[in-house]
């Protein structure tokens, strides 16, 4: 009774030994391992850190660019490099910010994982253009890396669509079999249509993913031909390797786009919740049209 009275007079409730031990253990953990607690809350500090890094980069990079322009005679090539640097400073932070938003709100890994890989395409393209303008002698090497990533982007875009469909519609093959027969688009309208169901789904995937194999292969061949001096980029002549590789790449690209279009046409209703038209146009314009 005396202990209870003393506790009440002091205004603090009595605590059991187990609760006291729990509080003590919790305080010790937070005090002895602040690094662990901080890393657990990385979602809170990663975005401010990204903003700080971006501002520091601007403060450092812009004076370096201006100094480079003052040091050299300003020509068209240098101006183009400087303009590319400005766009590089704009595109990379925006892309990284969107990527960080996906990482912070990482609630659907099967969909967000390919999205993040696709988003890396923008900074890779920007950095490739900037390096190629500054150091033309190594442009073939950085272009090789970029073109291989192009194929990886197409692979992930198709993976994004198929992951969404398989998760939402486990019986996707049966849904396709119940649909009306889809005919081919021109100029393949004279070809027999692909059987609705597993056959059409497999051939659409194969038609898109063949580009992910052809593109890296032709890129490596182009690199070897450049080292051997028989590539001759930009010159349409059957005596160089560039002409043949352009023909192969174009045929592969056109067929991949055709299969993507056919895939969307057949599954337009099922894909409508994720609004794939805008995503399809972005990938098509950036990856395919940028070739020209």
TrEMBL record:
Locations listed in the record: Membrane
Report membrane topology: Multi-pass membrane protein
Q: Does the keyword Membrane apply?
A: yes
Q: Which UniProt keywords apply?
A: Membrane, Transmembrane, Transmembrane helix
InterPro entries, sorted: Ostalpha/TMEM184C (IPR005178)
Mark the transmembrane ranges: 49-69, 81-100, 213-231, 243-264
The terms describing its cellular component in GO are: membrane
Record-linked PANTHER family? ORGANIC SOLUTE TRANSPORTER-RELATED
Identification of the protein by name: Transmembrane protein 184C
Organism name: Rousettus aegyptiacus
């Amino acid at each position: 009774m005396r202990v209870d009275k003393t506790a009440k007079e002091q205004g603090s409730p009595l605590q059991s030994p187990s609760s006291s031990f729990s509080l003590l253990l919790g305080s010790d953990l937070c005090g002895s391992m602040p690094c662990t607690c901080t890393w657990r809350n990385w979602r809170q500090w990663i975005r401010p850190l990204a903003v700080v890094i971006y501002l520091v980069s601007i403060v450092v990079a812009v004076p370096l660019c201006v100094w480079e322009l003052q040091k050299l005679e300003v020509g068209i090539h240098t101006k183009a490099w400087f303009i590319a640097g400005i766009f590089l400073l704009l595109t990379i932070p925006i892309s990284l910010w969107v990527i960080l938003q996906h990482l912070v709100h990482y609630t659907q890994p099967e969909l967000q994982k390919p999205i993040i890989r696709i988003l890396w395409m923008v900074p890779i393209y920007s950095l490739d253009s900037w390096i190629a303008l500054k150091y033309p002698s190594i442009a073939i090497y950085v272009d090789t890396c970029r073109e291989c990533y192009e194929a990886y982007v197409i692979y992930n875009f198709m993976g994004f669509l198929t992951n969404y469909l398989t998760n939402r519609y486990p019986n996707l093959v049966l849904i396709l079999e119940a649909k009306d027969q889809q005919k081919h688009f021109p100029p393949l309208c004279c070809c027999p249509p692909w059987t609705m169901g597993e056959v059409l789904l497999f051939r659409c995937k194969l038609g898109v993913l063949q580009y992910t194999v052809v593109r890296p292969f032709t890129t490596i061949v182009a690199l070897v031909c450049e080292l051997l001096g028989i590539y001759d980029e930009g010159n349409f002549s059957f005596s160089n390797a560039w002409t043949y590789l352009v023909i192969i790449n174009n045929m592969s690209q056109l067929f991949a786009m055709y299969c993507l279009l056919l895939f969307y046409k057949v599954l337009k209703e099922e894909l409508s919740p994720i609004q794939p038209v805008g995503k399809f146009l972005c990938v098509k314009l950036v990856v395919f049209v940028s070739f020209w």
